[in-house]
C-alpha cells in the first residue's frame, strides 16, 4: 500500500501579532494556502485597560477563496483553531467584536502553518524536517508564553480591582464606626447631664 499520507513540515517561524478590536469592529487577515496545507491560529483576548477585570470574548471565522465559511466559532476568549485547505488560494480569517460595543479588545494571535508534503517525494530531507520541527516547537513555547503574559495581565487587573474595592469598603467602614462612636458619646453625655429646674 502506497503511503500517500501527508507528512508535516512546519513553517520555520510562527507569526505573532497583536491587534486592537474597536467596539463593533472586525479585523481580517489573509493567508495563501495550497491544497492540503493546514492553517493554525492561536489567540488570546484581553483588555488594555488596567482597571478592567472582566474577560471578554470575540467571534472567529475563516473563509475559503470561494467565499464559503470554513470555520466559525463564537464567544471565545482564547482559541487554538485548525483549518485544512480544501483548495489552493487566499484564505481569510477574521476576529470580530461586532456583537459588543462596550470596550476595545486586545487580541494577541500567532499563525502557524503546516505544509503538505508527499511521503514518496525524494526531496524530503529528514534533517530539514528535524530542524523545522525544533523550530516549530520553539515557536509553540513562545506562543504559550505570550498567552501566559495576557492571562497574567487579566488576572492582575482582576486582583487590583478587587484590592481597590476592599480598600474603599474599609475606608467607608472606618467612617461609619467613627460616626457611630461620636453619636454614642454625644448621646451618653446628654443622657447623664444633670438638668436643674429653676
UniProtKB/TrEMBL annotation:
The keyword Signal applies. Residues 26-113 form the GOLD domain. It comes from Lodderomyces beijingensis. Residues 1-16 form the signal peptide. Keywords: Membrane, Signal, Transmembrane, Transmembrane helix. Pfam families: EMP24_GP25L. SUPFAM superfamilies: Supernatant protein factor (SPF), C-terminal domain (SSF101576). Its main location: membrane. It comes from the Eukaryota. InterPro entries: Emp24-like, GOLD_dom, GOLD_dom_sf. It is a single-pass membrane protein; Single-pass type I membrane protein. The lineage of its organism: Eukaryota, Fungi, Dikarya, Ascomycota, Saccharomycotina. This is GOLD domain-containing protein. PANTHER family: TRANSMEMBRANE EMP24 DOMAIN-CONTAINING PROTEIN.
Amino acid at each position: 500500500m502506497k503511503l500517500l499520507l501527508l507528512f508535516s513540515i512546519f513553517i520555520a517561524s510562527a507569526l505573532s501579532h497583536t491587534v486592537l478590536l474597536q467596539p463593533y469592529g472586525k479585523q481580517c487577515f489573509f493567508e495563501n494556502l495550497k491544497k492540503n496545507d493546514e492553517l493554525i491560529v492561536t489567540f488570546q483576548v484581553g483588555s488594555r485597560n488596567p482597571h478592567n477585570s472582566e474577560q471578554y470574548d470575540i467571534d472567529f471565522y475563516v473563509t475559503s477563496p470561494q467565499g464559503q465559511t470554513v470555520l466559525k466559532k463564537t464567544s471565545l476568549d482564547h482559541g487554538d483553531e485548525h483549518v485544512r485547505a480544501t483548495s489552493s488560494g487566499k484564505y481569510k480569517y477574521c476576529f470580530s467584536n461586532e456583537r459588543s460595543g462596550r470596550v476595545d479588545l486586545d487580541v494577541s494571535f500567532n499563525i502557524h502553518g503546516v505544509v503538505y508534503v508527499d511521503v514518496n517525494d525524494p526531496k524530503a530531507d529528514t534533517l530539514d524536517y528535524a530542524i523545522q520541527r525544533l523550530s516549530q516547537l520553539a515557536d509553540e513555547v513562545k506562543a504559550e508564553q505570550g498567552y501566559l503574559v495576557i492571562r497574567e495581565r487579566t488576572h492582575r487587573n482582576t486582583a487590583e480591582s478587587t484590592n481597590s474595592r476592599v480598600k474603599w469598603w474599609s475606608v467607608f467602614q472606618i467612617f461609619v464606626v467613627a460616626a457611630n462612636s461620636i453619636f454614642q458619646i454625644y448621646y451618653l453625655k446628654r443622657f447623664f447631664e444633670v438638668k436643674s429646674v429653676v
